[in-house]
Hints:
Blueprint: E1 4-12, H1 18-34, E2 38-54, E3 57-69, H2 71-83, E4 87-94
Antiparallel strand pairs: 1-3, 1-4, 2-3
Amino acid sequence: MSAHKYELMFIADPELDERGLKKLTDQYLELVTKEGGSVDKTDFWGRRKLAYEIEGKNEGNYAVVNYTADPATSKELDRVLNLNESIIRTKILRKDAE
């Protein structure tokens, strides 16, 4: 299987501070690097108001990560992110699918 470029955006609990958010992000991105992928760029947008309430929350900490991995690794990353109660929403887009 060949690697693809992806963009992951996730919204974490607004109670997490910046250090907590970075730690959480690094913890999950380790999955990508451990499987031979690479993390190309990480961008923390900080705390923002949500468009609509999710799980009783009006705000969330946004993070956007560009990474390269094979599809199975990306699928596993999405699965483990969705298991974490500190993660409100995730969205993974394949960037090289033109």
